[in-house]
Amino acid sequence: xxxxxxxxxxxxxxxxxxxxxxxxxxxxxxxxxxxxxxxxxxxxxxxxxxxxxxxxxxxxxxxxxxxxxxxxxxxxxxxxxxxxxxxxxxxxxxxxxxxxxxxxxxxxxxxxxxxxxxxxxxxxxxxxxxxxxxxxxxxxxxxxxxxxxxxxxxxxxxxxxxxxxxxxxxxxxxxxxxxxxxxxxxxxxxxxxxx
Amino acid sequence: xxxxxxxxxxxxxxxxxxxxxxxxxxxxxxxxxxxxxxxxxxxxxxxxxxxxxxxxxxxxxxxxxxxxxxxxxxxxxxxxxxxxxxxxxxxxxxxxxxxxxxxxxxxxxxxxxxxxxxxxxxxxxxxxxxxxxxxxxxxxxxxxxxxxxxxxxxxxxxxxxxxxxxxxxxxxxxxxxxxxxxxxxxxxxxxxxxxxxxxxxxxxxxxxxxxxxxxxxxxxxxxxxxxxxxxxxxxxxxxxxxxxxxxxxxxxxxxxxxxxxxxxxxxxxxxxxxxxxxxxxxxxxxxxxxxxxxxxxxxxxxxxxxxxxxxxxxxxxxxx
Lengths: 195, 320
What we know:
The structure holds two protein chains of two kinds.
Chain A: H1 2-29, H2 42-71, H3 85-102, H4 116-140, H5 145-148, H6 154-184
Chain B: H1 15-18, H2 21-37, H3 41-58, H4 62-69, H5 73-86, E1 92-100, H6 102-119, H7 125-142, E2 150-157, H8 158-184, H9 187-198, H10 208-238, H11 248-279, H12 298-319
Helix pairs in contact in B: 2-8, 2-12, 3-8, 5-8, 6-7, 9-10, 10-11
């Protein structure tokens, strides 16, 4: 029991580290320098959720969000037009803490390592919830940037124009790499899971 | 690529290095809220003076803070231009018609080539960029020969200038505060501070000790995993892999062939880490001792009072 708890802590720590590194690498190769980027960084969090259940998944996602906030996020507050403490709170909550925590809900599906359907559905659910959160923060906080692109409808701007392309691409990348790992049974060399 | 920096901590011995991380986190939060309550340029310039005063006390060079700005520099320029071009309130300061015709477009292309060549010299990049932007403006404004295939009337309003300066000064102040925090605090101390501040959440079932432990372990593992990634990439490059070119399908194959070994390495690392923790008798949930225990001292009181004064001042200004 104790042994498993230590293992879960160690695994969350390394996988969140891996997620941050994947995000950095994606940043180095991607054309965008700011804002959401196309990266497979969600995948390590999904794998934690699949291996150790949704509670540990949410914990790992939370830590990933907080680390991103510490390492890269602090500049973001300067961009809020007409910032109020409410808007800052919304950015911290709906751009970092909540969306990445929700990734952990991928672990709700049963037996993902033997049923490809659960695996795909889990990744889809996590990505979709994250997309909803980013979109909401876009509507509440970042709506004024819609005018800069000549778009009047803030909901369209946030949910379709800004957040959909990179989230769809990240989801596709996670799924593709996830299935490649799935086919090679990467997690299948004797490490126990604690679901 | 070798010089990737995780966090911004730079070792040193200023005032802020001796300050307790808990004080620093709370003070920065309050000062940021105070800055966001200010409503016009005059109040913001007082805040800017306060920020510079903080930098002087901490003996932190402004150049280091400016380096932190480099990442968002392009966005700063965009905000500035958009604010000026789109804001239509207040008095009209200048009105000019911008001509897009054969000659002006040719001149812009020439200016662009000239700018890129001068950039090769490697110095004064920022000044060159400014010169280029102003050059484009003057070309568009004064090269009016021939027929325009497009013309645009650029009107600059007083409010536009005011708002763009306001937004940019506010960004400068916020970034100064957060940079002082991250420059002078080790990520591990930062985590320790956050852990202490989150301790009350234990009542609703949030385990702040595990949380802080995992954050510091991850911070420790990020450079290690990054090194591994570079090793794998170097190994694959030596076998002819090319990560930057090729069709989308080839690129995806490359990415997969990079990520599969990275995940396997992460599993192996986590197993080793669990073994190391267990062999040192780590017991989850038990209270642990620390080599450096956080203690408040007199300087924490001084900075706390300073923060409170700033915060109260901002509230008073807001209410009046």
